[in-house]
Design brief:
alpha/beta, TIM Barrel, 202 residues, single chain, 9 helices, 17% strand
């Protein structure tokens, strides 16, 4: 399964707002959204995840559930994203459907290596030392697993981030403030893609 280059991570002051923002993101052309709600009971989260699944299915947008792989399985989301203190990807893999994807969070080269060993489908990397770390980590790893940059990314950052070898980005704040930025992010990310393809075909 090809991992989209732009991930929208849901934000909102209430669960209802998270769903409204997911709807807006889908309407604006997001290919993948992550439902990320903290401090909500499992029962409520299942209900919200089902609603998010209905919204995303309508737009054929991929839905990733943060933390809860059992809920991801129950609502047939496209996958789960596991933070560093969440379940182990190897355990989650045993429970999920074979077509569901698993993403993991990393801050260091060692974190990335651990996730690669556990066969995640993508890594969200928020390096402690910024862009320089991205270049070092991608250069050292040389992995086919997509590495997604995360952490306060704006449209101005995209070109510099892609030059480090990162394959995509995860954004919350910048998109939540203005859903029209999804189009800009996609254009910037896809421009890099066409350049890569041009080199390949020459």
């Amino acid at each position: 399964m090809i991992i989209p280059k732009l991930h929208y991570i849901s934000q909102g002051n209430s669960p209802k707002e998270h769903l409204e923002n997911i709807q807006k993101a889908c309407t604006s052309g997001a290919e993948l959204v992550q439902l990320r709600l903290k401090n909500v009971s499992v029962k409520k989260l299942i209900k919200l995840a089902k609603e998010a699944r209905e919204i995303t299915s309508h737009f054929q947008t991929r839905l990733i559930i943060n933390d809860h792989y059992k809920i991801a399985k129950e609502v047939k989301a496209d996958g789960v994203h596991l933070g560093k203190t969440d379940s182990c990807p190897t355990i989650a893999r045993k429970h999920l459907y074979t077509w569901q994807i698993i993403g993991g969070t990393a801050n260091t080269l060692q974190d990335c290596q651990t996730l690669i060993d556990k066969e995640v489908d993508y890594i969200s990397l928020s390096p402690v030392l910024g862009l320089k770390s991205y270049t070092e980590i991608t250069g050292t790893l040389k992995t086919k697993i997509p590495i997604i940059g995360i952490g306060g990314i704006t449209t101005e950052d995209v070109i510099d981030i892609l030059e480090t070898g990162i394959s995509g980005i995860a954004v919350s704040g910048e998109i939540t403030r203005n859903f029209n930025t999804i189009r800009t992010f996609n254009q910037l990310l896809n421009a890099s893609l066409t350049e890569e393809q041009r080199y390949t075909f020459e």
